[in-house]
Amino acid sequence: MKKDIFNLFENVIIEKKLNLINRLNQYFKYKMTSIPKFLKLKDYITLSGTTMGLLALICAVIGTRYFISLGFFFVAISLGTDLLDGYVARKTGTVNKFGIELDSLSDSLTFGIAPSVLAFQAFKTGGPFDIILIIGCVCFALGAILRLARFNITTEDTPGYVGVPTPLSALLLIGFYGANYFYAFGLGGIDYPFPEVSLYVIPFLLILIGWFNITTHIRFGEKGKKVYIIVLIIAPLGPIFAIIGVMNPDFTVSMTISIIFLGGFFLLLIFIISGFFNKPKQVKNSN
After folding, report:
1. CA 3/CA 284 separation, integer angstroms
2. Total Cβ atoms within 10 A of residue 140
3. H runs (alpha helix) in 153-195
């Protein structure tokens, strides 16, 4: 009996030592590896999206209507790089921990922080109500960051996910901004004020989207199906109509594009709400 207990403790100690050695080997492996050796093709694609996010932030700092629109244009471009880097990683067999961490950090900037700052600059009123707008922007950004943090510690290898992926939440905001931009442009040009109702709706929309990111009540099926289709159909509209926007469209064209953006916004919102009615099952988060 004593011998069995001794052997048990000996096996436990050996296992602990082996685990410690493996962790140390991993530590020194990553510590001694230079950054360029980490980077694969999919990582360069991810970094190009990160660059788009940084450019969007710079546009937000400048703060004019033209540069805010350009900032949302960069965010729309980063939607494409976000789809592409994952596709390339899977096709080339280069999915790794470094890429997952890098992708989440990039997404927190391009789909969380940058859109929230752009939204503040676009819809601020210059009055006390801006405090509520700030709260909405913070909730939007934190929702994206918390979702990505949860994704990084999720280990279940099952299809599907809970909550709204951060690219969809950014796309929802792009749709709302585009509808307001082209509506105002059609009425009086690039500096014409946005509809007053939008200025009071946007803070609560931002809070709602932030909650969409982290809620466990919204569930979808396997990643790569409906979500990819939605993004592939709607996301290109942003860059396309942004190019049209700099060509000084007339009233009819502006209002038509505004309606398209508004329609895309509501279609995407309906798709997200449909997630409340999907049957619960063990799922994996998606960034």
Report:
1. 44
2. 32
3. 166-188
Q: Are 160 and 284 in contact (CB under 8 A)?
A: yes
Check pLDDT > 70 for residue 238: no
Instruction: State how far the Cα of 99 lies from the Cα of 46, in Å rounded to an integer.
Output: 8
Confidence class of residue 283 from pLDDT cuts 50, 70 and 90? very low
Cα separation, 56 vs 37, in Å, equals 28
* Phi-psi category of residue 9: left, alpha or beta, with phi > 0 → left and psi -120 to 50 → alpha: alpha
Would you say residue 204 has pLDDT above 50?
Answer: yes
Q: List residues bridging with 220 in a β-sheet.
A: 161
Measured distance CA(203)–CA(89) in Å, rounded: 36
pTM (2 decimals)?
A: 0.82
Neighbours of 201 (CB within 10 A): 14
Mean pLDDT, residues 173-177 taken together = 94
Beta strands in the chain (DSSP E): 161-162, 219-220
Q: How confident is the model at residue 84 (pLDDT cuts 50, 70, 90)?
A: confident
Which structure tokens are listed for 57? Answer: 């932030």
**Distance from C-alpha of 45 to C-alpha of 163, rounded to nearest angstrom:** 25
Q: What is the DSSP letter of 275?
A: G
One-letter amino acid at 201 equals V
Task: Please state whether beta strands 161-162 and 219-220 pair in parallel, antiparallel, or not at all (unpaired).
Answer: antiparallel
